[in-house]
């Protein structure tokens, strides 16, 4: 015959179940909070990268700007080349700075969804287009160096390299925006999970508390009333009815 549980063992079991349900509730809340903090850190960093990319695109756009000298005359070809090379340097500096921001991605506990492969690919293409554009501008005897009154940026080869550069910078912008969208979707998924855990913990805790109240009445309150009634009978001289307690 199995030995019946003592009252304190039953109470300890109930207390342990209540504590466990409360821990589940707190775990869901902490999980949702940590997910929110993680998403905030990632988005702040990505927004900074997005800002750098916007500056990068503006600098690339400046290369094709139709500029004139202070006297109102159009720039000659050498001045146009120097102007484009000036913005080439600015673009190169922005790329170097962008790569510095990516170092924190590599060391972060919150890496990019694709481990940064999309950004690396886009940056490599930007480097290639930028190097090609510089070669067309600076190499003597190229079409960009020899076409009469045509603007340097309007040379077909230079224009093609410029458009490729602009396209890849736009692609980099889109990749970062996609990373931000993915971060929000991931955070929203974790929020729903945390909410489900918290609701489950609340429901379990409520059921356990109601169950504990019921068994407290069965295990403690009712026996005490029976004991009080028995003691009162004994006090009144009735010794024929034993006190039955389970």
CATH topology: A middle domain of Talin 1
CATH architecture: Up-down Bundle
Span from first to last CA? 16 Å
Record field, number of beta strands: 0
Coarse shape: rod-shaped
- CATH secondary-structure class: Mainly Alpha
β-strand percent reads: under 5%
Q: Which class best fits the helix and strand makeup?
A: mainly alpha
Count of the domains:
1
Total number of helices: 5
- The average pLDDT value, as a whole number, equals 79
Low-confidence region ranges = none
Give the helix proportion (percent range).
Answer: over 70%
List the secondary-structure elements in sequence, H or E.
HHHHH
Biggest sheet overview: none
Give Rg in angstroms. Answer: 37 Å
Explain how this protein is built.
The chain is mainly α. The chain has one domain: A middle domain of Talin 1, CATH 1.20.1420. It is 78% helix and 0% strand. The chain contains 5 helices and no strands. It has helices at residues 7-63, 77-106, 117-138, 143-146, 156-235. Helix 1 runs antiparallel to helix 2 (77-106) and helix 1 packs antiparallel against helix 5. The radius of gyration is 37 Å and the shape is rod-shaped. The mean pLDDT is 79.
